[in-house]
Automatic annotation (TrEMBL), chains A, D:
Keywords: Cell membrane, Membrane, Transmembrane, Transmembrane helix, Transport. It is found in: Cell membrane. The chain crosses the membrane at residues 54-73, 80-97, 103-126, 147-174, 227-250, 257-275. It comes from Maritimibacter alkaliphilus HTCC2654. GO terms for biological process: choline transport; glycine betaine transport. This is Putative permease. Belongs to the binding-protein-dependent transport system permease family. GO terms for molecular function: amine transmembrane transporter activity; carnitine transmembrane transporter activity. One of its GO terms (cellular component) is ATP-binding cassette (ABC) transporter complex.
From TrEMBL, chains C, E:
One of its GO terms (cellular component) is plasma membrane. Keywords: Amino-acid transport, ATP-binding, CBS domain, Cell inner membrane, Cell membrane, Membrane, Nucleotide-binding, Transport. This is Quaternary amine transport ATP-binding protein. The complex is probably composed of two ATP-binding proteins, two transmembrane proteins and a solute-binding protein. The complex is probably composed of two ATP-binding proteins (TmoW), two transmembrane proteins (TmoV) and a solute-binding protein (TmoX). PANTHER family: GLYCINE BETAINE/PROLINE BETAINE TRANSPORT SYSTEM ATP-BINDING PROTEIN PROV (PTHR43869), GLYCINE BETAINE_PROLINE BETAINE TRANSPORT SYSTEM ATP-BINDING PROTEIN PROV (PTHR43869:SF1). Coiled coil: none annotated. Its EC number is 7.6.2.9. It comes from the Bacteria. CDD domains: ABC_Pro_Gly_Betaine (cd03294). Residues 285-340 form the CBS domain. It catalyses: a quaternary ammonium(out) + ATP + H2O = a quaternary ammonium(in) + ADP + phosphate + H(+).
Length: 296, 312, 340, 296, 340
């Protein structure tokens, strides 16, 4: 009976020997490559530090102006522009300006990076079923392996701070944009693709002239999810020493300060909504044909 | 003497896991309780206990982080501390890696080391020295922040680095120790990390500057501590806390909890055992019960001890 | 007529749709027909052993019942569909053996296509759609714009340049597709029911464009249509498909007057014979000469009737290209030919 | 200058008074409604406990059989069926059987719940732009407010354990399925919808006869993301007392056991991949028309 | 003919596409035309002040240039499009004032539609597509299957029941749409270029179906076509649109012989006049009687020509329905009429 209800697993000793063997090897690997890796990422670190310092040092009225300007450029919509500026003013009034700037610095870099890397991978994935079957499980691992698990090796390799934080955010936030780019391209109408083929469009011309534009609804759903994922990682990132809104949230948790957590959490949400609305409205503008407003 | 259902908090660090599992085995086998283990972290568990009286027992509650609400709850009577020292040999303080200690034998106190921020360059600003504090929310976070001011460390060229979490703190220390890099920061014992890496705790030259300074300033949030004075660490406090529900249900094992004290060296040995074998709390509990009969049999009556021994 | 070059040559082409075309191919080669194949093997016979030579600078019309494989056949010419068996040669080169690059160049510069279902790019404005082929070719923007505008005007869509296809009527969309294909100035035009959604006036106008193009620029045009009048107006050569097989090929007169079987006879029965039948087909020899009015034997009855009606004795002489008399036709003969 | 670089925020005292006020009120609310809420969720708790006990008590060969059977029913694909069984055998061999059963119990309930709730909400959202503009920000909050923040009130209301764990998982995992259902329905070809309208299809008939079937590619992308999100919450859930694979992961983190974390993390990934592949292959079967295999 | 009920009544209908139709409506009412409106105000005039009464049990044909608003007009009848101004009455009820439920019932039970672009459900098999209207009506499955199968067979798609629309040729898809519309057995059929993708044989067959339906079941059919012959065969009444406006309405003979303007004359010039012109239109009075062969005045020239040709003097007498002589027609007159 015991045999049936308890799975006949490897012996305790075997398992622990195996675990130790893995850990030992990884530790060696860390020692061997850690420094090289750190050196490799150093320029990124320098940039992130510079960018954060820039945001921190810039007088807040200028930041508000820039944010308003970017929102306007992206969305061309007064409601969104004013909403963004008001959100930042509120964040300032409630004393979260500095943390927000730190978070803004790392998250905007992370999101842009994820999108810039994710879309090409998604395109690659849509090219063949083989590619798809190779990339899909990698994405599955990236999304479901608990961040805590890879935080250990990442910290062992790169220490704590912005770079490992950025990596952790990207590991988690890239998959949606990759998947939805792939899906969107695969859903493009076969008749339209046939027409492009018939005119001798090269793979490149098909991609940028037909597939990507027609996949935009899905690609922007991916952008939305990537933004959401990136911002949901703010707290995790701050667990490995990234400054920003995650820090007070962690403090709030351990002290059960509901209001503190809520306020900072809402600041994160506000960033997410601003990022999302600006990018989505930009996406809508790229898809003018769907609302049939061609004649202006 | 009915025992019934008992839930025990299993906190997510090694010593707490061990204690929770030892308690579980003894209550189940010795007292006939129906034990469930509930995983959690210090503060979520504490909140649940004070608000919902669930779980019943927190074997190893580090009270730094929850000092105020805990004393409020005690006054109210909703929580009861059965044991205010279930582990001996607790220690908190500022540590450096062994490689560094060897290289710089002359820097043998905190104060001496504080003059050399250049030896611990901070990755994000190399002109500064990095002092790794506690993750946000731990009691030690407040303490470190206040001591940082008390020792004028900012002027001396230090940055107080927030590691963000236990994982961050452990990782940064492990990475440095593994690679023989310099590392200076807070840690505590008994923990496997300290033993495993042979970390070196630096003594303070300053004397302990009195309870008033500590409790009235150093242990509080920064804004409530106007003028922190340099001081050595106070003694650390861990309690075994139970809910009043548990006491009302008869508190069968109350005597056991009161008597249960793990000597620091034994605890350290167990932690090293766990670490080396990557053992679970359950594995370690059996190991403890089998190899340290001399200790745990003193915590319970003979009949109970016999029952537990039978079950092993 | 002079000896002509063959522009597109289709040789023993087979196309079978289904899960395992190769497996059932031998059955088809052994003569299994479309209904049986569908019934017993659940494969659809698209094209069955079609061989067809399409001469340069001609308009080749393809007709046939709905589902007889016309679209499938035309798609093979630029290899949008891979055949199950057989060869397609364009200018003597085997399309099936072309590399990706060669095929792309073929499609870019040598051929262009109008789709039965239009195949417009929904996200591009009308003018961008029309420019599409040019953009692909790498023609520079202002040039492309100019050429596109010319064709937009020509198909009667001026004013709609900055609309999206979704905002146009069916026939307007079809004309966008037409303008797009014409704008690339390719040698070979593949036109799959290119005028099916057009009214008679615009359709006539579009037919005229094709005839001009063919006349002036000597394009080779493969044209699928269901409209017999259109076939007659455009088609120097007509091929008729049934169940994927080519059952008759020839000029309009041949097909109307000598249908290969009842199917074709039925097919053409509704045609306006007055526009097909030419006088030389009806002329009866006059051994002792004729001195009344004469007309060119190439004239169709529709035009000849008033002339015959007005002629003395209601009889006209018929001449060949050189003006030599080949016989006479009287009104009764003409009327009987029309209502055979 | 100070004014410019430091945002003129509310005074420290005001802010902290505000926070305390919120916290105080919430605490009162908790005491007032906590029990009623707990009673409300009690059946769910009973079910979760029963289900976990069932999985734990069932002999492992039967579990393997059931898993193989379900995989086959869903996917009708030998590779996936065998892969699933092998994955579970490996999990057992490496001594993670029990934890896996616990996680399986809660996550399968959570995923099914999320999909069952999420699709109707997505449908609702696709009904009108107004609905969309109401629901979108709620989803944004659900996805980006750090789980830690809502864990505080959830724990205060319901204590720690399976029910709050389930709630936390669902809050995070529902948004993707809602969003993608909405998007998929909105992308359905207008011509086809017009035809359905012309035949007098009721909203219900349009929905189930046309919109949902044609939105399936997107809905299944949503199912995929919901599965991924749910499994990525296993560790967070174990922070508030849910048994399962998250517990050893947390232990691994606090003790820097790389291999332990990795193994349990991979077990989570394996669950994710099995859930995903089975559901996606099922989805593919529902979309036979896209591969044009009608004639069998 | 007896006094008829009006089945569908369209009154002063306007439809303008664009961002703010209401704003430009007054301009249109003041007479601004389609090109000007597009040019100056960037709005497209879809329908301009159309009023049309469609009698019960008749086939109403609608013709017009591509883009003239035919599809837009027909879509108003079942309110797939909301008009900018105007009314549509079906059986005397204002469609615009119907509740959602009423409208649904109207569409379910009273009308069915064939779309220019087919509008098939890509995810349903052919048989499921054909059953669609029945399923919506709630007809039980086996009954629906039976009725669907009948129509599938009737449109010639037997064997393709379990194919998806994407696997069929254009014309086959169109027939699926046709079968779907016919299967519901609705009183009113809206057919937007329902036969445009069909070859002449199948098209003829489909036309016959419509004529039978109309004859036996007295359906009211609104039929858009570009094919003049088709219009003549089906259309008891023909309405012609240009730039959204209704410019002529009447029976075929009227439109061919008395076109309202050059546009319509042009439009019909390609028609096979032999199939339109009837003898009574050509008869010249014979005060002193006529004793040669006589034919019915309703006969079209196409049929009459051989008779005239064979008659003595090549002249026939023409009678009205009652058999009374109304005059004579000789061959020359007939030929001249054909080639006017
Ligand atoms: N959704 C729309 N948005 C803007 N303009 C439209 C829309 N639908 C139709 N139109 C315009 O309305 C006019 C009439 O279109 P409609 O489809 O009714 O033409 P049609 O007579 O059916 O033509 P065809 O014979 O080519 O099908 C066209 O000029 C077209 O551009
Ligand atoms: N992708 C496909 N899968 C399966 N069968 C197909 C496919 N495409 C075409 N067919 C079949 O091939 C046959 C020929 O189709 P094709 O489109 O060439 O006909 P067509 O002559 O162009 O007809 P139409 O005049 O109706 O356009 C049809 O029986 C059709 O069912
Ligand atoms: C010192 N510990 C990290 C174990 C507990 C705490 O400070 O909350
Ligand atoms: Mg075709
Ligand atoms: Mg139309």
């Amino acid at each position: 009976m015991e045999f049936l209800t308890e799975f006949p697993s490897l012996g305790r000793a075997d398992l622990s020997a195996m675990r130790r063997w893995i850990d030992g090897n990884f530790r060696e690997f860390t020692r061997a490559t850690g420094e090289a890796l750190e050196a490799f990422f150093n320029p990124l670190l320098k940039f992130l530090v510079w960018f954060e310092d820039l945001l921190q040092a810039t007088p807040w009225p200028i930041i508000l102006l820039v944010i308003g300007g970017l929102a306007w450029l992206g969305a061309r919509d007064w409601k969104i522009t004013i909403g963004s500026v008001v959100a930042f003013v509120l964040i300032g009034v409630f004393g979260m300006w500095e943390d927000t700037m730190s978070t803004l610095a790392i998250i905007s870099v992370a999101t842009i990076l994820c999108i810039a890397i994710g879309i090409p991978i998604g395109i690659l994935m849509s090219r063949s079923d083989r590619m798809q079957s190779i990339i899909t499980p990698i994405l599955d691992v990236m999304q479901t392996i608990p961040s805590f698990v890879y935080l250990i090796p990442v910290v062992m390799l790169l220490g704590i701070g912005k770079v490992p934080g950025l990596i952790a955010v990207c590991i988690y936030a890239i998959p949606p944009i990759v998947r939805l780019t792939n899906l969107g391209i695969r859903l493009v109408d076969a008749d339209v693709m046939e027409a492009a083929d018939a005119f001798g469009a090269s793979p490149r011309q098909k991609l940028f002239g037909v597939q990507v534009p027609l996949a935009l609804p899905n690609i922007f759903a991916g952008v939305n999810q990537t933004i959401m994922m990136a911002l949901s990682m703010v707290v995790i990132a701050s667990m490995i020493g990234v400054q920003g809104l995650g820090v007070p949230v962690l403090r709030a948790i351990s002290n059960q300060y509901l209001a503190l957590g809520l306020m900072n959490g809402l600041a994160i949400v506000a960033l997410a909504i601003i990022f999302d609305r600006v990018s989505q409205t930009y996406g809508k503008r790229l898809q003018a044909y769907r609302t049939g407003r061609g004649n202006d | 003497q009915e025992c019934g259902d008992v839930s025990i908090a299993e906190m997510d660090w090694a010593s707490a896991e061990l204690m929770a599992n030892v308690d579980a085995i003894i209550l189940e086998e010795g007292y006939g309780c129906d034990v469930s283990l509930i995983p959690g972290a210090t503060t979520t568990t504490f909140a649940s206990m004070s608000e919902k009286a669930e779980p019943d027992v927190a074997p190893e509650l580090w009270i730094n982080a929850v000092r105020d609400p805990l004393s409020a709850a005690k006054e109210e009577g909703s929580l009861v501390a059965l044991n205010d020292g279930p582990i001996t040999g607790l220690g908190e303080g500022w540590w450096v890696t062994p490689a560094f200690a060897e290289e710089h034998p002359e820097l043998d106190t905190v104060e001496k080391l504080l003059e050399r921020p250049d030896l611990f360059p901070y990755a994000e600003d190399e002109s500064k020295g990095a002092f790794v504090g506690c993750p946000a929310g731990w009691g030690c976070q407040l303490v470190n922040a206040n001591l940082f001011r008390a020792f004028d460390m900012e002027e001396k060229g230090w940055v107080l680095v927030d590691p963000g979490s236990a994982a961050g703190l452990d990782g940064s220390m492990a990475k440095a120790a593994d690679r023989g890099e310099p590392w200076f920061g807070y840690y505590w014992s008994p923990t496997s990390m300290i033993g495993k890496y042979n970390m070196v705790m630096l003594p303070f030259e300053a004397e302990f500057a009195g309870r008033e300074n500590w409790d009235g300033c150093i242990a509080l949030a920064e804004q409530d501590c106007q003028d922190p004075q340099p001081t050595a660490w106070t003694v650390s406090e861990v309690e075994t806390v139970v809910t009043d529900d548990f006491m009302e249900k008869g508190g069968v094992a109350a005597d056991y909890f009161k008597a249960r004290v793990f000597p620091g060296d034994v605890m350290n040995a167990m932690l090293v055992f766990m670490n080396e074998n990557q053992a679970t709390g359950e594995d370690a509990a059996f190991e403890f019960l089998m190899t340290h009969e001399d200790i745990w049999t003193q915590w319970v009556g003979e009949d109970v001890a016999a029952k537990v021994k039978d079950a092993l | 007529m002079t000896e002509e070059n063959i522009k597109v040559q289709i040789r023993n082409l087979y196309k079978i749709f289904g899960n395992n075309p190769k497996k059932v191919l031998p059955l088809v080669k052994d003569g299994m027909g479309k209904p049986e194949l569908l019934d017993k093997h659940n494969h659809v016979l698209g094209i069955q052993d079609v061989s067809l030579d399409i001469p340069e600078k001609r308009i080749q019309v393809i007709m046939g019942l709905s589902g007889s494989g016309k679209s499938t056949l035309i798609r093979h010419v630029n290899r949008l569909i891979e055949p199950t068996a057989g060869e397609i040669l364009v200018d003597g080169e085997d399309v099936m053996k072309m590399s990706d690059d060669q095929l792309r160049d073929l499609r870019r510069f040598k051929m262009s296509m109008v789709f039965q279902k239009f195949g417009l790019l929904p996200h591009r404005l009308v003018e961008e759609n029309v420019q599409y082929g040019l953009t692909i070719q790498g023609v520079d923007e202002s040039e492309a714009k100019k050429r596109a505008q010319h064709w937009i005007d020509r198909v009667g869509l001026s004013g709609y340049e900055r609309h999206y296809p979704g905002q146009l009527s069916g026939g307007m969309q079809q004309r966008v597709g037409l303008a797009r294909a014409l704008a690339t100035d390719a040698e070979i035009l593949l036109m799959d029911e290119a005028f099916s959604a057009l009214d008679p006036l615009i359709r006539f106008d579009m037919q005229s464009i094709l005839l001009e193009l063919q006349d002036e620029l000597h394009k080779t045009i493969i044209f699928i249509t269901h409209d017999l009048d259109e076939a007659l107006r455009l088609g120097e050569n007509i091929a008729i498909l049934r169940d994927g097989a080519l059952i008759q090929e020839g000029d309009a007169q041949e097909i109307v007057l000598k249908p290969a079987d009842d199917y074709i006879a039925d097919f053409t029965k509704d045609i306006n014979r007055a526009k097909v039948i030419r006088l030389y087909g009806l002329a009866t020899a006059t051994p002792n000469g004729f001195d009344g009015p004469t007309v060119d034997g190439d004239m169709v009855l529709d035009e000849a009737m008033p002339v015959i009606n007005e002629a003395p004795d209601r009889t006209v002489g018929v001449t060949d290209e050189t003006g030599k008399l080949i016989g006479t036709v009287d009104l009764s003969t003409a009327i009987r030919a029309l209502h055979a």
